[in-house]
Amino acid sequence: LSICSRTVEPLEYYRRFLKENCRPDGRELGEFRTTTVNIGKCSITTADGSALVKLGNTTVICGVKAELAAPAVDSANKGYIVPNVELPSLCAERFRSGPPGEEAQAASQFIADVIENSQMIVKEDLCIASGKLAWVLYCDIICLDYDGNLLDASVFALLAALKNVQLPLVTINEETGLSEVNLKQKNPLIIRKHPVATSFAIFDDTLLIVDPTAEEEDLATGTVTIVTDEEGRLCSVHKPGGSPLTGAKLQDCITRAITRHKEVKKLIDKVIKSITPK
C-alpha cells in the first residue's frame, strides 16, 4: 500500500485495510488509541482543578475555576456550571483564530448536555445559601492538539478536572450578611455520576470503527457518540446527521461504550489514588 494511494485515493486506501479488519495505524476496528490522563499537575495555577488527557495524538486540557455569585431568581437554590470548548488555530490547520467556530460551539453544547443529562453534578449541591450565594464552575476545555475524537477526550478531561476540584468552606456572616471564605478548610466537589463518552465513525454506511482519528472522521459517512455512566445507564446519544444506524448496530455501540467506561473509570481511579496524599 503505497503512500501515493493514501494521498490520491484516501478512501480506497482505507477500505483495503478495513477489509482486513485493521486500520492504517495498526489498530483493530474496535481498538482505542493509547489513553493517558494527568490530574492536577497541568500547571494551570489559577485553576481550582485541572486535567490533561491524551487520546493518541489528540490532547485536551481542562481547567475548572470556581467563583461565587448570586443564584438566578427562578432557581434560588442552584449554582451554575459553564462549560466552554476552545479549538485554537494552534491545535490543527482546519481551525482559525477568532470567535468560536461551529465545531467548538457544537462541542460546548454537547458537554453542557452531558452535564445536564448525566447529573454528574447536581446544581443544588453548588448552592451555599438559597437566594443569596452559590458556586459558579467555569469549565474551560482547550484542545492543544487535534487528531479526531474531540468529544471523548473533552468529557474525560472534564470529569478528571472536576474530580480534582477542592472548594473552600464558605459561610455567610449573620451580622454583616457578607460571605466568609475559609481557605484552610476545603472539600472535594460532589460528583454524583461519572459519564464517559465513546465515539465511533461509520464507514460506507455500515462499518463501525471506534475512536476515529481526524483523517478517519473526514472519510467517514457519519459519526456517533454514546455517553454512559457507571451503572451502564445511557446518558446521551449524539449523532450529527450522516449514515443511519440500525437498532442492532446502536446496541453494539452501547455495549462497547459500557466496556470503555470501565476502562476509563479504572484509569481515573488509579491516577487519583497515586496523587492522593497518603
Automatic annotation (TrEMBL):
This is Exosome complex component RRP43. Pfam families: RNase_PH, RNase_PH_C. The keyword Nucleus applies. Its main location: cytoplasm. GO terms for biological process: exonucleolytic trimming to generate mature 3'-end of 5.8S rRNA from tricistronic rRNA transcript (SSU-rRNA, 5.8S rRNA, LSU-rRNA); nuclear mRNA surveillance; nuclear polyadenylation-dependent rRNA catabolic process; rRNA catabolic process; TRAMP-dependent tRNA surveillance pathway; U1 snRNA 3'-end processing; U4 snRNA 3'-end processing; U5 snRNA 3'-end processing. Belongs to the RNase PH family. Keywords: Acetylation, Cytoplasm, Exosome, Nucleus, RNA-binding, rRNA processing. GO terms for molecular function: mRNA 3'-UTR AU-rich region binding. It comes from the Eukaryota. GO terms for cellular component: cytoplasmic exosome (RNase complex); nuclear exosome (RNase complex); nucleolus. The gene is Exosc8. It is found in: Cytoplasm; Nucleus, Nucleolus. Residues 31-168, 195-258 form the Exoribonuclease phosphorolytic domain. It comes from Chloropsis hardwickii.
